[in-house]
Write a structure and sequence with these properties.
Layout (H helix, E strand, L loop, with lengths): L20 E9 L4 E8 L5 E8 L5 E2 L1 E2 L9 E7 L5 E10 L21 E6 L1
Antiparallel strand pairs: 1-2, 2-6, 3-4, 3-7, 5-6, 7-8
Length: 123
């Protein structure tokens, strides 16, 4: 794929496609389990799945809410059993076209951010 054309200010002049993204909006640790929830998006195909990983471990699927449209945000949630201590939770989205969220951190300029959203919780 050729690199995008760039305008005089450094922004791409070609269309920028939205890549799959997931974010964590709720991370509420409890005594027995932590409630984790958020939203994901992957237009134009829609979100196929969202996965979480704890402390860099294996990716695990979460429950998805009803899809309103392939271009709309899709809610997700799960409950995790966590041991006492501090834990880092990361989220990623996978689109129906099979595109997996890029985990390499990149700033938003010039073509949008990448990387996994992460939160730290204390149980």
């Amino acid at each position: 794929m050729p690199p995008p054309s760039v305008s005089g200010r450094g922004w791409p002049s070609d269309p920028i496609w939205v890549t799959p993204q997931a974010r964590i909006d709720v991370a509420t640790p409890g005594r027995a389990a932590a409630s984790i929830a958020g939203v994901a998006w992957a237009p134009p195909h829609g979100v196929e799945s969202v996965e979480l990983r704890i402390d860099g471990g294996d990716w695990c699927p979460v429950d998805l809410g009803t899809e309103l449209a392939p271009t709309a945000w899709r809610r997700w949630r799960t409950t995790l059993d966590l041991l006492a201590g501090e834990h880092t939770i990361q989220a990623r989205a996978i689109s129906r076209s099979g595109e997996v969220q890029d985990g390499t951190p990149r700033s938003p300029f010039p073509s949008g951010p990448t990387g996994y959203h992460a939160v730290t919780v204390e149980v």
